[in-house]
Amino acid sequence: MLSLALYILLAPLAAFTIVIFFGRKLPRNGDFVSLFAIWSGLAASLYLFFTQMLGHYDPNFALNYRFDWLVWGSYTLKIGIALDNMSMMMLVVVTLVSSLVHLFSTGYMKGDPKYHRFFAFLSFFSFSMLGLVLADNLLVIYAFWELVGLSSYLLIGFWHEKEAPPNAAKKAFVTNRIGDAGMLMGILICFGALGTLNLVDIKSGVAAGHLTGGLLTAAGILLFMGAVGKSAQFPLHVWLPDAMEGPTPVSALIHAATMVAAGVYLVARLFPILTPDASLVIAYVGGFTAIFASTIAVAQNDIKRVLAYSTVSQLGYMVMALGAGAYMAGFFHLVTHAMFKACLFLASGSVIHAMHHSLHHIHSHADPQDMRNMGGLKKYMPVTFWTFLIATMALAGVPFFSGFLSKDAILGGTLAFAMEHPKHWLLPVFGFSAAGLTAFYMFRLIYLTFYGTFRPGEEAAHHLHESPRSMTTPLITLATLSVFVFYAAPAFNPTTPAGGWFATLFPTPERAYAMEVKHEGHEGGGSNSEVTESAESTVGTDHSQLSTLNSELPEHAEAVNSEHSFNSSHSAHLEHLAHNWAMLISILVAGLGIWVATLAYYKWTIDPEKWRLRLGVIYRGMYNKWWSDEIYDATAIKGTLGMSRFLAWFDGAVIDGVVNGSAVVTRGVSFVNGWFDNKVIDGLVNLTATFVGFWGHFVRSFQTGQVQRYVLYTLAGIGIVLVIVLV
Amino acid sequence: MNNLTTYLAISAILFLLGLLAMMTRKNAVSVLMGVELVLNSAGLNFVAFNRFNGGGVNGQAAALFIMIIAAAEAAVALAIFLNLYRLKATAEVDKADTLQW
């Protein structure tokens, strides 16, 4: 199993290396290398999925492989691969969407001068994303997180000769980085408090009480910051719409199905250690993002922008679900959304491809992505139309489609949460409003694009044709996967995912931390139950105030932990009630959205122009993405630039002034030194020489060369000796 | 008056006179005369001691030696002074100062 997982991970990396260096020299520019790598990875993932995941059919199934990576002193850092249900599901999602995008790109990117680079980058991205889902510790996740961001940068800026893509790529990377800074702080808190970064060990560390309270909440929120950046939640959502500058297959793969899902994946992995406070923050951020982005999507005219904001909104749904404790719903939506959103993006790529052709033929410079230039494409591109429609119905939450199941589960979970904590009524309001708006703008898109008459005219319409099979096959595959049957087996209940394999294999994990007991007389030391995930986190028995969730007696459940319970038996009942209500309301709301869209854009009985004027500022806000970019420009960007100008001045004036000043002082000191050396030291030396010279001269004068003088000296010497001897 | 002391005194006076001549005379030959005086005073000392303090003829033999050596040494000295005259065209010892520092 390990070798299979390693093959899945490394085959795309090998493909990248081969294609980036030798792609141009290979036949067909080497795309078959990438295709082979990812399709064989898909086969291996499906094998793992069917034999290990569905074979064992155990929610706690997990295979862990670890090996020592860094050893220093007494500490060993182990990294490894975790093959549990979630990773295997993600493997299938990633390899499947990636394989289909690879196939689609052979048609879409045909003729591009840098065709081989595109496939090399696609392979590199696949490698990074697969590494992210297979990693079992936060450090490796962080590394692959950054690699995924790099791949995104390379792919968004793929057409770097144009002006907009490199800017969009930079924007994406920098915005991501801001989130990653928070994530790194979260990782450091975990490492500092727990001494480990392995996900399983973190859970058991938190359960043992090494990281609690405010610090644990902070860690949860900081790690969530990474998800805010990567999954384009408010306020770091600004990069995703601009990322549409990249080729459409890139948008489908990265900015719909996989990379942006990495943030949700991370939150899901961290679910057991998120405190109630952290979860609330997560839920509100997600909920707000959901409604915020859907309002913007309503007013957009570029087909890819609508889908981009829709993605942001749906990611908000997933995040909100995880925050509200509806774990299965959030992850389920991740999987279904990957399928239908990728289908939507690829189908829009098919539309754009056809529009490009036809506008080119009439020498028009109109934007091929603007819906106002489309219309009536239904009869020219039937396959695209039908797959688009199926995926749209899944997204809008029409019953019998996969999206209905997952979105409904989210709305039910949120409603249950709000029923239990009535002061958080805003969350389901966000959810349902966003659902209504989603249905509205998606059907607006369908009507403007596929119905009516082709607006550029008859001449251009002649050049419209359906896309080649390399592009339609992925569409058909993904549309097929957007119906409910695949996810609801074996129960096949179209109204709820419960009973299906997905719900069974991904139950909500127990929280790992100990929660404080509010009830005074309750000594929770007696009843401790074990956590069901991997049996590795047991609650410490020393603390007398510990209690885990399912150990509560039902009558205590409401009095105790009324603010913080997530999985008590009481809320299981609530979930069922909420689910039914949610189903009802969501069908109503989706129906309302579709009906209004039909009236406005199909029957044209509601005039969009009049409403645009009526909504005035609100419309302008929606159209201008609520001025997010402008606000950031005026505050963060100008602020940063102002600060850099100030720092540049400071560096030039003050720091350089100090340096120059010290240079002047040094020169002065050296001048004094020099004078001292010249006058004093040399003076002493000269003095010594003169002294010696003088004495030498004196002594020398005794040697006259006259013998008689020497005789006199001898006599004098004899005299001195006589004196000494006799006295 | 016929005792050792008198002869020693005379010998001493002769020695000093010779020394004086050696030290102060300008002419080379005069210096040599002084040297002769010194040497002979030493011989006189020997003879005096021989007469008054012992038997035998040791002292007198010594005096004889001294006279011979004085003669030899005078010969050598004169040879040197002749060379000096050839070199410097003068017989004054003051002028032999080539070994001055």
Output the keywords:
A: 727 residues, mainly alpha, two-stranded antiparallel sheet, 2 strands, elongated, B: 101 residues, Helix Hairpins
List strands and helices in order, with pairings:
The complex is a heterodimer of chains A (727) and B (101).
Chain A: H1 2-22, H2 31-56, E1 62-72, E2 75-84, H3 85-108, H4 115-134, H5 138-156, H6 164-194, H7 199-207, H8 213-230, H9 239-242, H10 248-257, H11 259-270, H12 276-298, H13 303-323, H14 327-361, H15 382-396, H16 402-420, H17 426-450, H18 458-461, H19 469-480, H20 485-488, H21 501-505, H22 554-559, H23 569-601, H24 608-615, H25 617-623, H26 628-700, H27 707-726
Antiparallel strand pairs in A: 1-2
Helix pairs in contact in A: 1-2, 1-4, 2-3, 2-4, 3-4, 3-10, 3-14, 3-19, 4-5, 5-6, 6-8, 8-11, 8-12, 10-14, 11-13, 11-14, 12-13, 12-17, 13-14, 13-16, 13-17, 14-15, 14-16, 14-19, 15-16, 15-17, 15-19, 16-17, 16-23, 17-23, 24-25
Chain B: H1 4-24, H2 28-53, H3 58-88
Written description of the protein model:
The complex is a heterodimer of chains A (727) and B (101). Chain A is mainly α. Chain A is built from 27 helices and two strands. A two-stranded antiparallel sheet of chain A has the order 1-2. In chain A, strand 1 (62-72) and strand 2 form a beta hairpin. In chain A, helix 11 runs parallel beside helix 13, helix 15 runs antiparallel to helix 17 (426-450) and helix 17 runs parallel beside helix 23 (569-601). The model of chain A is unreliable at 516-566 (pLDDT under 50). With 101 residues, chain B is mostly helical. Chain B has a single domain (4-93), classed as Helix Hairpins, CATH 1.10.287. Chain B contains three helices and no strands. The N and C termini of chain B lie far apart (51 Å). The interface between A and B is medium-sized, with 11 and 13 residues.
